[in-house]
Amino acid sequence: MKNNDRKFDILYSIIRDYIKTAEPVGSRTIERKYNIGISSATIRNEMADLEEMGYLVQPYTSAGRIPSDKAYRLYVDRFMKKVDVDSYIKEDVRSLYRHYFGELEEVMNKTAQILTKLTNLTSLVSTPNISGLNIKDIHLIHIEDERVLLVVITEQRIVKSAEIRLTGTPTDEMLEHVANFLNLSIKDMMTEFRASDFASRVDALTPGEQKIVSEVVNTIKVIFNSEEDSRVISNGVTEIFRYPEFRNDMDRTKSFLEAIHRQDLLSYLFSTVQDDSVSVRIGEENGMEELSNCSVISATYKINGRPVGTIGVVGPTRMDYDYCVSVIETLTNELTNHLDETIGGGKESDTSGR
Amino acid sequence: MKNNDRKFDILYSIIRDYIKTAEPVGSRTIERKYNIGISSATIRNEMADLEEMGYLVQPYTSAGRIPSDKAYRLYVDRFMKKVDVDSYIKEDVRSLYRHYFGELEEVMNKTAQILTKLTNLTSLVSTPNISGLNIKDIHLIHIEDERVLLVVITEQRIVKSAEIRLTGTPTDEMLEHVANFLNLSIKDMMTEFRASDFASRVDALTPGEQKIVSEVVNTIKVIFNSEEDSRVISNGVTEIFRYPEFRNDMDRTKSFLEAIHRQDLLSYLFSTVQDDSVSVRIGEENGMEELSNCSVISATYKINGRPVGTIGVVGPTRMDYDYCVSVIETLTNELTNHLDETIGGGKESDTSGR
DNA sequence: GTTAGCACTCACCATGCATGAGTGCTAACA
DNA sequence: TGTTAGCACTCATGCATGGTGAGTGCTAAC
What we know:
Two copies of one chain form a homodimer.
Chain A: H1 2-21, H2 27-33, H3 40-52, E1 56-57, E2 66-67, H4 69-79, H5 86-98, H6 104-119, E3 122-126, E4 135-144, E5 147-154, E6 159-165, H7 172-186, H8 195-202, H9 207-225, E7 232-235, H10 244-247, H11 250-260, H12 263-271, E8 279-281, E9 294-303, E10 306-316, H13 321-342
Antiparallel strand pairs in A: 1-2, 3-7, 3-10, 4-5, 5-6, 8-9, 9-10
Helix pairs in contact in A: 2-3, 5-6, 5-13, 6-13, 7-9
The structure holds a DNA duplex (30 and 30 nucleotides).
């Protein structure tokens, strides 16, 4: 019915205005700034309705209205428009990426920086999670005495290294044997090692070598199973000072900053994303009391079509959803493409993205 | 003269009190809490003198006094006492370190965490700077196509790896040749490569291999010369909210946090340490406008007697210098010892520390 | 259903005032 | 000459007060 359309037109205007100004929006403001063609009195009536429906909140009796989380939800679900961000991004991003191939850490850092620069929000980027990936190659490098560097290359051509401390000093020959054995045994095998698969072939090795095998396998298990492996990098945490609702509220700022500096919370935040494409979680939807004033927009990036990590932004619920969603979407694609071009190349599945 | 002693007794009491309470200290407070045996009126006279001498500051006419940076300087130089922190630290730290050998990143993270936990201040830890170290070993691992992983082990047994992108796909044989050549040429040679040294021996290689050599050498140069290599890890940045002088001053908090999140500033901060042992820089002494409200206590840690990095804490100028200096001193020694035990072992120089 | 008008609410701001911590100065004392 | 008591003075802080203005809800008229 026509009536409801108008209600939501007004709601839309209020949300847009509040996103821009961070000030409670009054009926006269709507009448003046957005020509809906009805008087402020009528708008007032509609606003009263919208408040009763749970879309608006009045901070105090005679103030204007503020959109509720429910309003933002509606906005995101029904009113959000795609913004063409390519023009902003293409040049900048691609030329930036061009200089950072291979070094994943660096690529992720740059991505976070770009995200912050584009959105003026705190950005979060999780490093690729390699748990569950297949191993392609294993190398063992003797550092000195009982110290050995383990280098693992996955099917996706992600390189991981870790130091192993053996109980005794191995000879180069032993290490070579062990590496050869592992490469033969592990090829095309899931990182879920099962003892039985080894037992049949491990006999060919000396007891000392077998011991090394088990230490290496243990380390690989740790690397490939630990959640801890996938760190979340943050950037632009002080962007929060841009926003008056934080700048004028030390407590809020404090709890935001405390949350954003805790790896465990950030990991949790990203682990609870369900959406396959871009996820928007508004206020309490993100499931973290510490960030109940904030919205989180995130999406997963892929390597060879396999989701391996997440990028996102965190900011006040009053954020420009249209723009931010588009930025995240575009940047996720750019990142996925970049990774496929530089480290991808396995034939595991076809490349998604543009 | 006796007169001056009393003055500085009073100054000492004021500093101790202000460090503890963060409130301007009045003459009556001194009279009551610290029994110097003179009346508040006399103390007032002395305080007026101390103010004229530049040791005290009055925030407004009828308030108590606050120590100036000059006062803290005097305090650190003349009154500071060593605190026995071993009892706090020994068990905790050593058992913590015991689980993190080899993985330098991890060790540095833990160190920062311990520092924050012990001092309730923001801690900074720079990762070991390897520029200028000697190379012991070079390994090349073929990842795929034109991607090669370079692993460099220094005399100090620090392991660094970086990915190299060649212009064509090398054979395993080529990589082996190149690695052998480099290991022979580089052994015991400073990381300052000189073209002439190569020229004589490089002829034995094929043109393709020579190309790889130059790409590897370039990468090594980058690794070993870039300042960027030595990152500064921070921990406990939100500890700053503990301190009322920041908690009640958004601007101050903002600029602290903005500074502490800038790698370039942190690197600069650590690059300007001169002191060989524990360095204490009070307020503007640290040379950074952004941190002119803060003091920085830092010290360098070593591997095989060679200074390779810095650890430190940053906090309000009103900090417990006695305690913090002792913590930094002890922890630097513990870290140096730990590194010598786990990765050290080169005979370059004798081990310092306990 | 829409609008004008009006009384009402309440954050915000400026002002004024009392309070109290702390000072500087002076005069008396040892 | 150094120390102390006394006192007037200063000024941040807290609290009450009143005016202002943005904005509302309600009612009555269109």
